[in-house]
């Protein structure tokens, strides 16, 4: 559980897995753009790609929420 609460690991995951491949644009950006335009022609593998490349950002959001609630609740 310590690994999922480590800021350095989560940031590293966001910068590597979350944004890979970097050129011509991050993969997650292209997939989110495709989804926002309706997702026409997306297959199961494309949705899995969104989940895989988006998961580090979900972990980062989770850490931010935990940090904010601990700061306001204490």
Automatic annotation (TrEMBL):
Keywords from the UniProt entry: Membrane, Transmembrane, Transmembrane helix
Transmembrane segments: 48-65
Listed name of the protein: RND transporter
Organism encoding this protein: Winogradskyella wandonensis
Phylogenetic classification of the source organism: Bacteria, Pseudomonadati, Bacteroidota, Flavobacteriia, Flavobacteriales
């Amino acid at each position: 559980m310590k690994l999922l609460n480590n800021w350095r690991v989560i940031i590293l995951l966001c910068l590597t897995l979350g944004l890979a491949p970097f050129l011509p644009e991050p993969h997650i950006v292209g997939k989110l753009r495709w989804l926002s335009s309706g997702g026409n022609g997306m297959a199961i593998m494309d949705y899995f790609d969104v989940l895989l490349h988006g998961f580090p950002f979900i972990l980062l959001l989770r850490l931010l929420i935990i940090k904010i609630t601990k700061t306001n609740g204490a």
